[in-house]
């Protein structure tokens, strides 16, 4: 067994240029792409459909204040069109201000005058909901103040009382609710892994699976040259061969993950304790995938069938569950794929 391990190791080292490229390529990508990825996420906006059926001063004011947010992008449209945009995933959600919106707020009542349309795949629209609700409550409380002051003194008009009440909301309201975004798997107050780094780990999983497939080429090369068949004849089986291939490739993947994670820690200036749970999860997934790749290679004698199935698995995993935010799979099938396990909340903690 040790002889076979030495042989496989020397054959792997014979391709040292390719190995250096495999190890160095993600390092270069992370070092130069991570800053641009962080900037892109920070500057990204949440598209939200906006339907104003009231067409009044209050509805216009809410729209203007919400539009001032750098994280929201309002798309003015009709109710039917808004529903289509939500269903197609072109917007995160749709908010419909019904007729009578201003009348209700001026009366100081809080009936259902705002409709919120979303789908199960919507994940970033909560911020928009809270901001729209906050602006509506602001107008309603100002209106209540105006009505209350008018009942006490006829010398102060409704508008004067309204504007005076509104001034207490700037630069910050006298009372406010603070919303804290907590990533799944983290305790309150704990620092979660930034979305940009979660995206990098998603790409690293793709890269790692691709490396596993590439390294398994040796099995088909040995079968083509007759080396694998001779080993079966002399030893009676190829168990030692596949065992050595498995552990040697796994060790190489361990070196790859270690180098990449060290690069992430240095470049992103992030505490290793934050990254560790994700690295552990990634390592477990790659071990599981290595077992799957090996069994598939043993079972399939034709390299074309092997590479086709692995390409299909990787592409499906990326398309259905390859993003830490937007998950395109609604049937639950993607939960059983590698990226589904990577972003599964049950693994976090």
From TrEMBL:
- Transmembrane ranges, per UniProt, are 18-37, 200-220, 241-266, 278-299, 306-328
Recorded hits in InterPro entries, A to Z, give: ABC-2_transporter_component (IPR051449), ABC2_TM (IPR013525)
> Localized where?
Cell membrane
Topologically, how does it sit relative to the membrane?
Multi-pass membrane protein
> Per its UniProt entry, which superkingdom is the organism in?
Bacteria
The ABC-2 type transporter transmembrane domain extends over 16-319
Predominant cellular place of this UniProt entry's protein: membrane
Keywords recorded for this protein, A-Z:
Cell membrane, Membrane, Transmembrane, Transmembrane helix
Q: What is this protein called?
A: ABC transporter permease
């Amino acid at each position: 067994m040790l002889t076979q391990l030495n042989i496989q190791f020397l054959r792997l080292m014979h391709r040292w240029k390719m190995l250096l490229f495999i190890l160095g390529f993600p390092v270069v990508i992370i070092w130069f792409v991570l800053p641009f990825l962080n900037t892109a996420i920070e500057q990204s906006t949440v598209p939200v459909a906006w339907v104003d059926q009231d067409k009044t001063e209050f509805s216009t004011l809410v729209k203007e204040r919400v539009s001032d947010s750098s994280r929201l992008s309002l798309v003015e449209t009709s109710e039917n069109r808004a529903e289509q945009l939500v269903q197609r995933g072109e917007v995160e959600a749709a908010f419909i201000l019904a007729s009578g919106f201003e009348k209700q707020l001026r009366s100081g009542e809080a009936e259902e005058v705002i409709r919120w349309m979303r789908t199960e795949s919507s994940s970033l629209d909560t911020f928009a909901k809270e901001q729209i609700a906050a602006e509506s409550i602001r107008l309603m409380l100002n209106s209540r103040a105006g009505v209350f002051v008018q009942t006490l003194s006829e010398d102060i008009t409704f508008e004067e009382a309204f504007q005076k009440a509104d001034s207490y909301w700037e630069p910050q309201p006298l009372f406010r609710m603070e919303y804290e975004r907590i990533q799944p798997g983290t305790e309150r107050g704990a620092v979660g892994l930034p979305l940009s780094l979660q995206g990098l780990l998603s790409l690293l999983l793709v890269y790692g699976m691709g490396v596993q497939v590439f390294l398994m080429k040796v099995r088909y090369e040995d079968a083509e040259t007759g080396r694998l068949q001779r080993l079966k004849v002399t030893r009676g089986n190829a168990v030692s061969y596949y065992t050595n291939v498995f552990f040697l490739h796994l060790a190489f993947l361990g070196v790859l993950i270690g180098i990449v994670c060290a690069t992430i820690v240095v470049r992103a200036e992030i505490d290793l304790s934050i990254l560790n749970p994700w690295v552990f999860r990634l390592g477990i997934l790659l071990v599981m995938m290595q077992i799957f790749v090996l069994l598939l290679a043993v079972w399939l004698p034709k390299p074309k069938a092997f590479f086709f199935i692995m390409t299909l698995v990787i592409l499906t995993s990326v398309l259905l569950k390859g993003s830490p935010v937007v998950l395109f799979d609604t049937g639950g099938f993607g939960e059983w794929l590698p990226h589904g396990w990577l972003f599964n909340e049950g693994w976090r903690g």
